[in-house]
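Task card 7
Instruction: Convert sequence to structure tokens.
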Amino acid sequence: MTNIQGIAASSGIAIAKAYQLVTPSLNYEKKTVENVDKEIERLDDALDISKQELEKIKAHTKKELGDEHAEIFSAHLLVLSDPELINPMKEKIKSDNVVAEAALEETANMFIDMFKNMDNEYMRERAADIQDVTKRVMAHLIGVTFPDPALIDEEVIVIANDLTPSDTAQLNRQFVKGFATDIGGRTSHSAIMARSLEIPAVVGTKEVTQSIQQDDMLIVDGIEGVVIVNPSDEELKAYQEKQENFAKQKEEWAKLKDEPSLSKDGEQVELAANIGTPEDVVGVLDNGGEGIGLYRTEFLYMGKSALPTEEEQYEAYKSVLEQMNDKPVVVRTLDIGGDKELSYLDLPEELNPFLGFRAIRFCLENEDIFRTQLRALLRASVHGNLKIMFPMIATLEEFRQAKALLLDEKENLKNEGKDVSDSIEIGIMVEIPSTAVIAKQFAKEVDFFSIGTNDLIQYTMAADRMNEQVSYLYQPYHPAILNLVNNVIEAAHSEGKWAGMCGEMAGDSIAIPILLGLGLDEFSMSATSILPARTQIRGLSKEKMESYKDKILSMGTAEEVMEFVKEKTE
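Output:
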């Protein structure tokens, strides 16, 4: 039995076998062979197994995510059947007497380099397809397991160094009971996705991939942030009881599903949810969400071989708006860059991508991509209560430029005879300190603010939230952060506008009383945090928390703030 400490990222208790989602080493011994027919047979076998796997993944993806997402695997299957690629591999085995691995690698690299250097964007995208497919074939030649989250068909706990957004999008909730990673924090994408999927998770352990073997029995305690490897019978029994108690607690929270979010003294706020896909809406409604405060549209662009079309995007936005039945839906325009990359876009490598060419900066430079998204959003606006917000806004000029493009596309659509809502609110995410500092100037022009604390904290504290060495500086309760948040809320209210928060801080049990006292109008969080937050707010007096505002804002450290809030709310 081993206990591994990490960061509690998603509440709950999971008990299941370990599934190592770790890409294996694809090294092999380069040597010549005498029996070339045997090598060709090995290559054919590896190709056949890879095709069978891809057919299964395609079927799973079609069932879970629809035809459009499944098309990427159709492209992969075509690559595996392409004689232009496969025949040169076999010729190389015959002519050079090399192992199948060497023939595969050299031929694939030649085609990848050739496609990468083509002017045609479609052909450049084929390079990524060849790369993905040949890794799978190589794994089968070498005889190592190639991990496929979409093919998991038994109850497991996924173990990984980290989980990419496309990895987490493939996880089947029916079988994946939880996960644990080496790296990451509460605001990493894997943690956020775990809360969306409503599965327990522990991140930032530094050692799970090294300390855990395939099929080890595991307990993931997403409440305390602990992973227990091969627990004793007594420990297993104790955690099964803890699991049952957590389920009972959830039943209590569920009683407030249809209740308003009222403080003890009758003040109402809005509790909304953050989502990544239309499928997430079910979780929002099941957890009593009063709106969607952040729809992360970048997931529409990920895990694909090409940009989503206007029609694909329109259908996704329409689906969310219709499901929410006139409850507010705040859609964030495309936010890629930082740790979110798209394989089919040739973005420059940057020394500091979080401070680089991302989000609105990318969109304003790539107007065709941006306009496609804006058109899809505007067309979908007639199906519900849509609000649009632009991410990573640093200057008023950026906001004005983005808004002008939106209004231009609105005019274009009307001229085409298409219906567009005339009541769309246009706002911004406040995640850059410069914007929070001059929020009064922005408040005159925007319809609303949504404070993105995940980035606001890392930019204010100059501490990369993905870097464990400086994780101690990721301090949501630091007075500098609280003063910036207060500045934004006061600026919004001075112009009769509303202010929300869509960072993970909005669902934090220490932050909630503070934010209530600062006058935050909308709290947007992971869907599973809504009912616990509603329970907490019903026990808090807004007037009382307001009376502590000046004292809290004048404190010197995050620790002082935390201790004060605990003392006043217990």
